[in-house]
Amino acid sequence: MLVKTIKVKKLGVVIAVCIAAALFIFLVVYGVAHAYSDDCVTLETEEQRQSFIKEMGWEIDSSYAETSAAKIPTEFGDVYEQYNDIQKQQGFNLEKYRGKEIEIYSYKITNYPSGRENVFINLMVFEGRLIGGDVSCNELDGFMQGLKRSES
User: Fold this and answer.
1) Domain segments of the chain: what residues?
2) Contacts for 116-121 with beta carbons within 8 Å, 24 or more apart?
C-alpha cells in the first residue's frame, strides 16, 4: 500500500477557501439578479399573457386582443425617453432593445378603478419574454401608467 501525503501551507488553504467563497457569492448574486431581471417573465402563449395580466390585478375583455409588430427606435427622442422612464420604474429598460423588432399585445381592461372606458394594457414582448408595457387610455384626456394595478 502506497500512501502519499501533501503538506499544505495555511496561507494556501485560506486563499482556496476565499476563492471558493467568492465564487459561491458571485453565483448566488448572479442567480438572484437573473431570476428577477425583466427577461424572466415568459409570455409566449395567450394563456401566459392572460395569466400575467390577472397577476397585475386586471380583468380584460377576453374577446378583444390585438397584436402588432413594432420596432424600438435606435435613437430615443424626448417622448420615448419619457416612456422608457415609465419602463425603468417597473424594472424594465428598453435601451438594450434599440433597433429590435418586438410584438405588442393589447387587451381592453374592464375593471379600471374609475370605471373609465377605453383603457388598454399593452405588453411588449421580445423573443417570448416581457420587456415592458403600460396601461393607457387612448381618449383625448388619456393617461399612461405602469402595468401593475393600483387603487389610486
Assistant:
1) 9-40, 42-145
2) 118/142, 121/53, 121/56, 121/58, 121/60, 121/147
